[in-house]
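Researcher: Re-running this chain for the archive, since the previous output was lost when a drive failed. Same request as before.
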Amino acid sequence: MTFKPATALFCTLTAITLALSLGASPLRAAPDDPASVEDETAAFDASALWDEVRADFDLFYAYRDRRGFDADAYLNRVGAYVTAADKQAEFRRRLNRATYAFTDPHLGFGPSDDQDFNVIPTASDLQIGYEAGRYVVLDVRAGSAAMAAGVRPGWMFTHAGDEPVDDATRKVFDPLIDNPSDAQRAYAATLLANGRRTGDRALGFKTADGEAIDLVLANPRNFAWVVTTQPHIETRWIVQDDGTDIAVLRINNRLGDNDLIIGFDAAMRAVLDADGLILDLRNTPSGGNTEVGRSIIGHFVEAPTPYQMHERPSLEREFGVPRRYVEYVLPRRPAFDPKRTVVIGGYWTGSMGEGIIVGMDAAGVQTIASDMGDLLGNKSDFTFAGGAITHSIPTETLFHVDGTPREDFVADIALAAADSDERGSDPAIRAALDYLSADN
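Model: Regenerated structure tokens:
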């Protein structure tokens, strides 16, 4: 196969626009920003503030009782832990730390400071899994510092700094959880592998051949900012050995920017003669909004088509009346044949990116993906202490139209890793090309 030159739309944005376009999981304010500086003179009643936070959490957190542990018992421990803080900033840090037990990147308390871990998946380049006592690199983000350093899926993650990873993961939950679950260990290890908001990471690995390697990697938050300077959409062409032209549309973390609607329409007009189309959503970790999502899916449907289900547990908790509804996508022009289309995703496909893949699946488009970002539900933002503490919380659960929770969706072709394989090549593009070359 051969490659044609890439084209790009919407190249460089101002810093303000960049910050706004990151969508559901933005890069947090820098430590010296006014929003993240503690007011030492502010009145602070830890017990009253916790009662307010707990009431909203219990009512509105859609996944409160779906994370595999006793939420009531855990939150009682959290209450004792956070109310022991003597300053509001420490109270906020403890609250944020307590959210890690729910293994939900959509859940957090801000504004962040240097003591917080990087926001995942936005400011991350390593995804770590845990099984049978081993912490395994599941995927490495394309273009990142970790990829450039040669880290590959299948490596063992052994040390965070000088500390064995198993000890470090326990400390992430101490003193709230004595024996973390496998999912919690994997989540904590991913936080550790991607480091805190400032500074490089000193990480230890063991390769597939058993070689111990120590690396110092740049902070993945740096790469997250690089992504904001990349084009909204990149178009490239791949000429298959049989002469067919395949267009690849890659979106660079702009699913929260409504300007992408116009940009994507233009990109579609430019690829209408393609023999096949690959929609690449592997670089959309920060989520976005449903207007952008529906605008994209609309190019691949011929009639009004359901694309996701919503459920709002707070209404049943408060009134005893459940609410579930189905959201539809309507056709848009120019149209492209869904049978000649593949959509690909991976661990850096978050929230609205996950929703688009689920919606494209409902529309009959072939899906190829590893596990994705698992940013749960549809989130809302709350504030406490006169706006000094912010709270990001999923208030709706989301489902495929067949009833599968979005976080449990499995693609038509399920990959172990989507950004990189053990050789550093691109497994998702290879699988998509194979599918489009086959007689489907």
